[in-house]
Amino acid sequence: MAKGNKPGRRRFGNVRKLPSGRFQASYIGPDGQRRTAPETFERKSDAERWLTLTEAQIFNGDWTDPQRAKVKLGDYAAKWIEQRPGLRPRTVELYQWLLRKHIAPYLGGVELGKLSTSMIRGWRADLLAAGVSATMAAKAYRLLRAVLMTAVDEDKILTRNPCRVRGAGTEHAPERPVLTVAQVFELAERVGVRPVGNFRKLDSGEYRLRYRVKGGTMRRFPHTFVTRAEAERALWKLAEDGHADTVRDDRLRAFILLAAFASLRWGEITALRRCDIDTENRTVRVRAAFVERDNGQMILGPPKSRAGLRTVSIPAAIIPDLVAHLDKYTGKGGDALVFTGVKGGPMRRSGFNKVTRWTHVVRAMGVPGLHFHDLRHTGNTLAADMGVSLANLMARMGHDNERAALRYQHRSKSADRAIADGLDALVQVQQAKGGDDEDGAAGKLVPVA
Predict the structure, then answer these.
(1) Is residue 424 part of a domain?
(2) For the chain, which residues score pLDDT lower than 70?
(3) Phi and psi dihedrals of 301, rounded to 5?
(4) Same domain for 267 and 211
(5) The predicted structure's pLDDT at residue 417
(6) What pLDDT, on a 0 to 100 scale, did the predictor assign at position 19?
(7) Which residue, 51, 74, 52, 172, is CA-closest to 123?
(8) What is the pLDDT of residue 2?
(9) Helices assigned H by DSSP within 24-103
(10) Average pLDDT over all residues of the chain
């Protein structure tokens, strides 16, 4: 018999009538503390029904302490990010930004226990209406879903996750560009080309452009530019059209080739040491990665996943470029960084983009939306086109789950064509046997007695 109940009364909980005429329900929780319903009821039967549902939650192990559910989502999510194990620094910064920018302003002050699916559906709709991209909204939703899943599974604050909006966490990113082998080599050549010229800011605030023509003579461009960016674009256009002289620097040639043909991430290739390169056996050992935080701090740590620790074979065709780079630009010690910034430290994305004038280069190649990560994407696609197994593709990519590798295998038309060609060869062999086949003529059904 439940504590506090008299013979003939309810087996679980109590219902009492208040001076207002409404009914209040209360019960003794599993922790021995008396709890009251969060609201009063107009009818006694409604209060009794609430107690019956609460008793069922306790019996099924679904009961949670209502007081704990009063914690604000913003506070809980911030603590979740702080205490989540295994998050890389860049991931922590992304989560904190998503919480601060897209979650806390809308839902940060809501108690966990008051969150509902309809509330979260409305929050997502507000994000999209405010101009937040579908991709960014999906990232914010996945973070919120992960936070609340911990509140359900580990902390037992909620009985179910209110993030149940179908398709809200799915990103439909546009297809990324894939370079051909010839384009990879063209890019490796182009990132070392620099147009020769200079800019001067005038008292009017505009910019004057001077450029060097073939033969070494400097000339002034006939008109000025409102911004330096416009002047830079004009200089690059002059170089592309052959009107401005250029200089070449092969410092980043091997960097581009290795990123593409070894399928390396930015942090992995920038962390390579001389001792990681084996030009005789044509392998690259990946054992570390640099992470650049928003404040500019460079952190050296393990690769993105455990599978990221790997040794990757590289084509013989790029070995001469790699050897030339090691001889010319890499320190002699085994621990020397293979690729460095202008001042000899770890290469930074900002420095790389500035030195290569990446935006101008890829636009001139006809792939204006190309990102550096698309070099890895290109390498993965080329590997998938070889028809390699899923396990081998995962090992080369440094992935410990099949999802990403399957995406490349599904996308590989060349591998599919290789399968079709193989089947075609088998059919041709069978047809060539003709009537010599013991089971009957090719292409005919033989009756079975």
Answers:
(1) no
(2) 1-10, 62, 173, 399-424, 427, 430-431, 433-449
(3) -150, -170
(4) no
(5) 61
(6) 92
(7) 74
(8) 45
(9) 44-60, 73-83, 89-98
(10) 85
- The distance from CA 191 to its chain's CA centroid, rounded to whole angstroms, is 26
Residue 104 tokens, joined: 């806390």
Listed residue (280, 273, 251) closest to 333, CA to CA: 273
Residue 3 lies in a domain: no
Residue 189 structure tokens: 């050549």
- Kindly state whether residue 433 falls inside one of the protein's structural domains: no
274 and 288 share a domain? yes
Query: To 5 degrees, how large is the angle CA 312–CA 399–CA 179?
Result: 65
- Do residues 208 and 74 both lie within one domain? no
Copy the structure tokens of residue 319: 């070995």
Q: Given the DSSP bridges, would you call strands 218-220 and 207-212 parallel, antiparallel or unpaired?
A: antiparallel
Nearest to 279, CA basis, from 263, 303, 262 = 262
Domain assignment of residue 201, given as a range: 193-247
Q: What confidence score (pLDDT) does residue 400 get?
A: 66
pLDDT of residue 396: 79
Whether residues 269 and 304 share a domain: the answer is yes
Helix 349-356 vs helix 358-365: crossing angle, to nearest 10: 50
In a domain, 168, yes or no: no
| CATH code at position 123 | 1.10.150.130
Burial (CB count within 10 angstroms: exposed 0-12, middle 13-18, buried 19+), residue 449: exposed
pLDDT of residue 386: 76
Helix, strand or coil, per DSSP, at residue 21? coil
Q: Tokens 């190309």 map to which residue?
A: 370
**Residue 151: exposed, middle, or buried by beta-carbon count in 10 A (0-12, 13-18, 19+)?**
buried
Residues that are catalytic = 265, 373, 376, 399, 408
For 217, phi and psi rounded to 5 degrees? -85, 135
Integer Cα distance of 103 and 125 in angstroms: 12
Per-residue pLDDT tens digits for 5-24: 455 566 788 889 999 999 99
Kindly provide the b/e burial profile for residues 319-339, where b requires at least 16 CB atoms within 10 angstroms of the residue's own CB: bebbeebbeebbeeeeebbbb
Clarify whether residues 368 and 257 are in a common domain: yes
pLDDT in tens, 325-363: 999 999 999 999 999 988 888 999 888 988 888 988 998
d(CA 408, CA 398): 14
State both tokens at 48.
Answer: 């009794």
Number of domains in the chain: 4
- Output the DSSP codes for 344-374: SSB--HHHHHHHHTHHHHHHHHT-TT--THH
pTM greater than the 0.70 cutoff: no
The Cα 355–Cα 193 span in angstroms is: 10
Tell whether 295 and 402 lie within a shared domain.
yes
| Six token digits for residue 20 | 């207002």
Claim to verify: residue 134 and residue 261 sit in the same structural domain? no
pLDDT (0 to 100) of residue 268: 93
